[in-house]
Amino acid sequence: MTAEWSFRPSVLADATWMAELRAVVMRPDLERLGRYHPDRVRQRFLDAFTPTHTRAIQVGGIDVGLVAVRPNDDGVWIEHFYLDPARQGRGVGSWALAQILLTDTAGRPFRLNVLQGSPARRLYERHGFSLVSQDPIDVYLMKPAPESQC
Predict the structure, then answer these.
(1) How far apart are CA 113 and CA 100, in angstroms?
(2) What whole-number distance in Å separates Cα of residue 24 and Cα of residue 31?
(3) Which of 91, 103, 141, 150 has the fewest CB atoms within 10 Å, i.e. the most exposed one?
């Protein structure tokens, strides 16, 4: 970790740049799957955006990504994990995921989904996620709840 990497809470005003980043990051995978639509990719984020669950990822105080962590009965869902392509491959995403995995899950597993063929799947598997199920579009992964520290 480097001191210049951090999270900040998101606010409603972040929705526009976050939706735009989602469109940029997801475009190659969605086009490969024949599912890219420029308006829909942004609107799906805007419809689901919950600032209280979302954090901006910062490098040197500049917003470069985002991640949402949403508790649910079946687990803690990691959603909307996007990093500016110019910042990918430098350890920022791995750092952010490692920080999220320190979250107290109250005994629930971490869950997430990625698009079929997404290179992000390798990041998740390196951090202990494994396949639960898949369909022609999505791959669902899970990491068991952290062991209790006694």
Answers:
(1) 16
(2) 11
(3) 150
| C-alpha torsion angle, residues 6, 11, 12, 16 (rounded to 10) | -20
DSSP string, 37-97: -HHHHHHHHHHH--GGGEEEEEETTEEEEEEEEEEETTEEEEEEEEE-GGGTTSSHHHHHH
pLDDT score for 150: 41
Helix (H) or strand (E) holding 99: helix 92-100
CA angle 103, 96, 67 (to 5 degrees): 80
Judge if pTM exceeds 0.85.
yes
pLDDT band at 145 (very low <50, low <70, confident <90, very high): confident
